[in-house]
Amino acid sequence: MTPTLRTERLLLEPYAPEDEDGFVALFQDTRVSRWMGDGPASEAADRALFGRIFTKVYAQDLFDVWAVRRDGLLVGHAEIKRTDVVGGHEIIYALAPSAWGCGLGTELAEAVVAHGFDTLGLTEVYATVAAPNEASLTLLGRIGFEHVRDIEEDDGGTTRVLARRPATTDRSP
To answer: Which helix H or strand E contains 76, and what residues bound it?
Structure first.
């Protein structure tokens, strides 16, 4: 069961059925969806994706998926799941453009990474980012992700694979 997470300004909680329109609006915004999965999809496809969160992901407890809220409003989406592309757990996050530029992306990514390390017991967390997505690459670099390799996509694009390990404490005297 996807747990509820809290940061200073955000609430990450499982989606509720009434979040469908907000979810679809987020994924229909091409400023967001251009960086998600295979890029923009039809409204019907995004509604079907939202439905699968309940009928498949939550019903089978496959992985954690969150609605991201600020001041009670749906402002984003986040998940952490095992993927074969990286051979481990990958974080996925998106924020509505109205939430850009004020540090919420960093806060969101840090919360999901901490969940991976602290709750899931992971020793490494990955992110895959389209090479032109400088904002996400910069954010992830700032919070300790390092470039691992590149994937050349069928469409000619490049996806960067990044990884982060838990911070270690130096216990030397």
So the answer is: strand 73-83
What is the per-residue pLDDT across 59-73, written as a single tens digit (0 to 9) for each? 999 999 999 999 999
1-10 exposure pattern, b = at least 16 Cβ within 10 A, e = fewer: ebeebebeeb
pLDDT tens digits, one per residue of 15-27 = 999 999 999 999 9
Tokens 């969160």 belong to which residue?
53
DSSP 3-state of 42: coil
With CA atoms as reference, report the closest residue to 82 among 126, 140, 32.
126
Q: What is the DSSP letter of 132?
A: T
Residue among 85, 57, 74 nearest 1 (CA): 57
Q: What is the reported pTM?
A: 0.92
User: Both tokens of residue 102?
Assistant: 């004020």
pLDDT value, residue 38 = 78
The separation between CA 143 and the C-alpha centre of its own chain, rounded to angstroms, equals 14
CB 40 within 8 A of CB 47: no
Q: 169 is written with which tokens?
A: 């404490």
**Distance (Å, whole) CA 49 – CA 58:** 12
Q: How far is CA 80 from CA 5, 66, 96, 102, 122, in A?
A: 13, 9, 19, 23, 11
| Number of separate helices (H) and strands (E) present in the chain | 5, 8
- Answer whether 26's CB lies under 8 Å from 96's CB: yes
